[in-house]
Write a structure and sequence with these properties.
Structural class: alpha+beta
Radius of gyration: 26 Å
CATH architecture of the largest domain: Alpha-Beta Complex
Oligomer: single chain
Largest sheet: 7 strands, mixed
Number of strands: 22
CATH superfamily of the largest domain: 2-enoyl-CoA Hydratase, Chain A, domain 1
């Protein structure tokens, strides 16, 4: 068995880029060295040896020494990655969380078999195919609920307000994974679209949503890429092309191998080249998100608002292995149209590179010409097509740096958020009042948006629940956080009744970055005029 594994690993590595990487004699010496160690471990180690695991660890360790994004992907994980980027999987169609050891339906996926059968937000799955599901590890749940289209799974559900458990036989089906999670048009004609990754169906989804927004009177657009980790380069290029006129360069790559270098350009004549545009970004916006935001900024097509992005500008190519596993290897670097390298330094190691906490997203304020950016004097500067200065050195520095809303660290609010008290409160509230709310507002979200309020009594009950969970709540200090906490409660209630789209319509009312973006369209129009 281990001969096969060793041959697979060594044969794959020998066959890839031997000449450009290292001389033939030297690499064969290193392979022989590895072989000798593996053979000796197999023969002499005090305990039984799992050779496939050793080889996988060796491959992972080797790639780990290269850069943060060259990685080994085990077979099971690779299957999940492929599902995510295909934009679909086969299963029962729910978003779930494990709350107090119980699988809880966060939301049934629209059009999926669970929604069709009447499974609703807040339902608790206590049995799967007759077996107790309480206490099940979160990572094991997909293995129980997913399966081939046409197969069935029996689930036993406890519903708030009900007395007896409900039995459902669910026929699994193909479930779409939507990457455009919300879109709507404000009364003043401002369109909003939230995209959570750049997967295979994302371009098509975006175009469908843009068409619907246009039919509803969209005059300008806020594209929300906050927290979007990226995805397919080709999707980012096609999506940016819809907003960029002429034949401008959108992104290009550089490599030690000429066959890995590419230039991607826009094509004129698209439908949304003149719509006023603002892109929201955050430290969690990476890769394809940075390509799109960087192109819009460098070409003076619109404004970028938020915090400096992650800085992931290394191009990976996936190399599949015969056992279903794969590895991603960095083969090039991304550059924005002005010549900025998107990748930020990673010499301090993988762990610090991936840590978002404490990362400086920039000093809050307008940086439209980046002339007052004292903290960035050590970073290289570049020019947009209209002559504005933009900052390099890794990531995309926004034109307007706006910090997100913060909670008082001593009021108890952070612990309320991290311990998921809002979800628990809304779950309990919907158990007692959900039917009445659905009857009152179910057919008219706008009435709920404008009329429903989290009352003082509700908020007091919410704080009592937090205190019952041994959270130390400072009743005086938490008054500062009350508007944001009430907004999150209301948004969660909306999601329970209607879904993600309505969740965002409410959540954005207390979103400092979004509210600032709404005021900046006159500036976005001025910037766009520079490029013409």
């Amino acid at each position: 068995m281990w001969f096969t594994i060793l041959g697979l690993a060594l044969g794959t590595l020998v066959g890839i880029y031997i000449q450009p990487l290292i001389s033939g004699d030297s690499i064969y010496e290193q392979l022989n060295k590895f072989k000798d160690v593996l053979f000796t471990v197999e023969k002499y180690y005090v305990d039984d040896v799992n050779s496939p695991e050793l080889v996988e660890s060796a491959i992972a360790g080797m790639l780990n020494r290269l850069d943060p994004h060259s990685v080994y992907i085990p077979a099971e994980q690779q299957r999940r990655v492929e599902e995510d980027f295909r934009g679909s999987f086969e299963g029962i169609g729910i978003e779930f969380d494990v709350i107090r050891d119980t699988i809880t339906v966060v939301s049934p996926i629209s059009g999926g078999p669970s929604e069709t059968l009447g499974i609703i937000s807040g339902d608790k799955i206590i049995k799967i195919d007759g077996q107790n599901a309480v206490g099940m590890d979160r990572s094991d749940v997909p293995n129980k609920l997913r399966g081939k289209k046409g197969t069935t799974v029996n689930v036993t559900i406890v519903r708030a307000g009900g007395t007896d458990p409900l039995e459902f036989t669910i026929t699994r089906d193909k479930i779409p994974l939507y990457t455009v999670v919300a879109s709507f048009v404000e009364e003043n004609g401002t369109g909003y679209m939230k995209i959570n990754q750049f997967a295979d169906p994302t371009y098509t989804e975006m175009m469908q949503h843009l068409e619907k927004l246009s039919e509803k009177g969209m005059k300008r657009l806020i594209l929300d890429l906050r927290g979007n980790p990226g995805g397919y380069l080709e999707r980012a290029v096609r999506m940016a092309d819809e907003f960029i006129g002429g034949t401008h360069k959108i992104v290009y790559t550089k490599s030690t191998r000429s066959d890995e270098e590419e230039v991607f350009r826009a094509h004129g004549g698209q439908s949304y080249e003149d719509i006023p545009l603002i892109i929201l970004v955050s430290p969690g916006s990476a890769s394809a998100s940075e390509i799109m935001a960087g192109a819009v900024q460098d070409l003076d097509r619109g404004l970028v608002v938020g915090e400096t992005t992650f800085g992931k500008g290394l191009v990976q190519k996936a190399f599949p292995l015969s056992d279903g596993s794969a590895f991603r290897l960095t083969v090039a670097r991304y550059y924005t149209p002005s010549g900025r390298l998107i990748q930020r330094p990673y010499e301090n190691g993988r762990e610090s590179y991936y840590a978002l906490e404490g990362r400086d997203g920039g000093e809050e304020g307008a940086n439209i010409d980046h002339t007052n950016d004292a903290r960035d004097t050590s970073k290289p500067t570049f020019k947009t097509v209209g002559g504005r200065k933009v900052i390099g050195g890794g990531g995309i520095t926004p034109d307007y740096i706006v910090k997100p809303d913060t909670l008082n660290s001593t009021s108890g609010s952070w612990e309320i958020i991290t311990k998921n008290i809002i979800w628990e409160f809304v779950e309990a509230y919907m158990g007692s009042s959900g039917s009445a709310l659905r009857e009152q507002y179910g057919n008219n979200f706008d009435d709920f948006l404008n009329g429903f309020q989290v009352t003082p009594g509700m908020f007091d009950s919410f704080l009592k629940m937090a205190e019952a969970k041994e959270i130390k709540v400072d009743r005086e200090l938490i008054r500062e956080d009350a508007p944001l906490l009430k907004n999150r409660i209301k948004a969660r209630i909306a999601r329970s009744i209607w879904g993600d789209n309505e969740f965002y319509r409410i959540a954005l009312q207390s979103d400092k970055q979004y509210q600032k973006a709404l005021t900046l369209f006159p500036e976005a129009l001025k910037i766009a005029a520079l490029a013409k």
